[in-house]
Design brief:
By secondary structure, the chain is α/β, with parallel strands linked by helices. 22% of the residues lie in helices and 16% in strands. The strands form three sheets. A five-stranded mixed β-sheet has the order 3-5-6-8-7, with helices on one face. A two-stranded parallel ribbon has the order 1-9.
Length: 234
């Protein structure tokens, strides 16, 4: 795939790490958090408007499909962690997603986003649930999601149906790895298509999650603000 005026990153890949046993029975791992209110109250600031340099991606791509799992209880933690469903990213990151979205139109494909910016306080909740750096970045370091520079996403067809990627989102196991190839040819093709596209617009994948991509062209600081929800008082 060729995209005009897009910086193509050629990122080398090292040898695959030794595969560790899959995480199982996540619901049996104690979270040590009462409910989402505790997460909300621990965020550093609450803003009536977005901070400078941040963009709601739906304002750039109204047709973008969102399925922000942490705004619901349908996630591996099992509770709602975000006040409402929004996809916020740094401006340059959002613009790169818009370019990727437009490139998919020719193939009658689109994008569905599962996660975008994530406050660091929510990162701490995820880490308490699964303290495993293969799947959750230690909040002491700060995730690229905490910087507004990462997205979790998948391909969808023209009817909004997800393209088969071999596993569900947030599947913690070998089958979700880019290095796992014992999958149908169409699944491997879809993963490669998404990976190649995201690389061309400035993102890098991680080995253990086919859905996660981090923006590489610019660095950002970790953030911890809670976004305003339309029609809701803060």
């Amino acid at each position: 795939m060729r995209l005009p005026c897009i910086l193509v990153l050629f990122l080398g890949c090292g040898s695959p790490d030794q595969v560790q046993p899959e995480i199982k029975q996540l619901n049996e791992i104690p979270l040590n958090i009462r409910d989402k209110t505790e997460v909300d109250e621990r965020t550093a600031t609450v803003n009536d408007t977005l901070p400078e340099g941040w963009v709601d991606v739906k304002s750039l791509i109204p047709e973008l499909v969102l399925d922000i799992r942490y705004a619901t209880s349908d996630n591996f933690v099992g509770i709602q962690l975000y006040p409402c469903e929004r996809c916020l990213l740094r401006k340059e990151v959002a613009e790169a997603i818009a370019v990727a979205f437009e490139a998919l139109r020719a193939d009658n494909l689109g994008l569905k986003l599962f996660d975008c910016y994530r406050p660091r306080s929510v990162q701490e909740a995820l880490w308490r649930k699964v303290p495993d750096a293969r799947y959750v970045t230690n909040p002491a370091k700060g995730s690229m999601h905490n910087r507004g520079a990462a997205v979790d996403l998948t391909l969808i067809d023209q009817n909004g149906h997800e393209i088969d990627m071999g596993t569900e989102y947030d599947f913690f196991g070998e089958k979700a790895y880019h290095t796992f190839t014992k999958l149908p040819a169409e699944v491997l093709t879809a993963r490669r298509k998404l990976r190649d596209l995201m690389q061309e617009v400035g993102f890098k994948h991680i080995r253990t999650e086919w859905w996660h991509y981090s923006y590489q062209i610019k660095n950002y600081e970790v953030s911890d603000f809670r976004w305003p929800c339309p029609g809701q008082a803060l």
